[in-house]
Specification:
The protein is mainly alpha-helical. It has one domain. 60% of the residues lie in helices and 7% in strands. The chain contains ten helices and two strands; from the N terminus they run ααααααααααββ. A two-stranded antiparallel ribbon has the order 1-2. Helix 5 packs parallel to helix 7, helix 6 packs antiparallel against helix 7 and helix 7 packs antiparallel against helix 9. The longest helix has 28 residues. The chain is globular, with a radius of gyration of 24 Å.
């Protein structure tokens, strides 16, 4: 047998052995890439885990039920009556605390406390989360037309501030849950503060806040799931391209800026 044929037979034998072991083990081990790589998330198991949707779905379900179920609607009114009895000062910190968890992620990374993704990756993820949040909340407000407690307009359901706050808190949790769990969950305290103050400021009912929290968490979970697909569309594998994505908030509107060079 010639050297060429011998090498071919040996090569086929090795290839057959590798695939045979892969079938027996049902998986092939892949070398882990650095966490700061823009392609790191593509090597991870990127599936929607139903367990991550239990709590936000329950919150959204409660919020929707509060629109029509009498006992839940009564809780809306009794909670507002209890708040008004104490006559709390109407402060507007909730306009800023809704973004605080996300701001902390960027600030902590700037000071060397690294999260799961680099600047580009986490900006795309957070920007996607804000877009999904807006795509859910804004149409619902105009479709449901629930009157606010202070009767200023009929855009009460769901709470947009709370949705953004919990989307930001979930973003912080996902970035730090594997390296510093306590730091990761700390963003939820700011999100809860935002939701509570939406009620103290007489802008939302309990059901509005619950639904907003659920929608915010769902938005961020969807953003992490969508990121590999978005990264490919943005040319994540092309080293000759540069992409910058930045979320923004101006005149009570949330948006995202996108610049790409080739």
């Amino acid at each position: 047998m010639s050297n060429y044929r011998q090498k071919t037979v040996v090569g086929l034998f090795i290839l057959t052995s590798v695939f045979g072991k892969a079938q027996n083990n049902d998986s092939i081990q892949v070398q882990e890439t650095p966490k700061d790589s823009t392609t790191a998330i593509n090597t991870e198991k990127n599936t929607l885990n139903y367990k991550n949707f239990i709590i936000p779905t329950a919150l959204v379900g409660y919020g929707v039920a509060s629109l029509s179920v009498s006992s839940f609607k009564q809780l809306n009114f009794s909670t507002r009556d209890e708040i008004n009895e104490h006559k709390p000062d109407h402060i507007r910190l909730d306009n800023y605390t809704q973004f605080a968890p996300a701001a902390l992620v960027y600030g902590l990374n700037a000071f060397g406390v690294e999260g799961k993704h680099n600047f580009r990756d986490r900006t795309i993820i957070y920007g996607t989360s804000m877009l999904i949040t807006s795509a859910i909340v804004v149409p619902l407000k105009h479709a449901v037309k629930e009157e606010r407690p202070d009767r200023s307009n009929d855009l009460s359901f769901p709470s947009g501030h709370t949705a953004i706050a919990f989307a930001s808190a979930q973003f912080m949790f996902r970035e730090y849950k594997d390296t510093n769990f306590l730091l990761g969950i700390s963003g939820y305290s700011l999100a809860v503060f935002t939701g509570v103050y939406r009620m103290l400021n007489d802008k939302h009912w309990v059901g509005d806040v619950a639904a907003g929290a659920g929608f915010g968490i769902l938005s961020t979970e969807l953003a992490y799931w969508l990121y590999p697909k978005i990264n490919n569309l943005l040319g994540g594998k092309n080293k000759n391209t540069a992409t910058m994505v930045m979320p923004f908030y101006q005149d009570k509107s949330v948006g995202i800026g996108f610049v790409k060079t080739f």
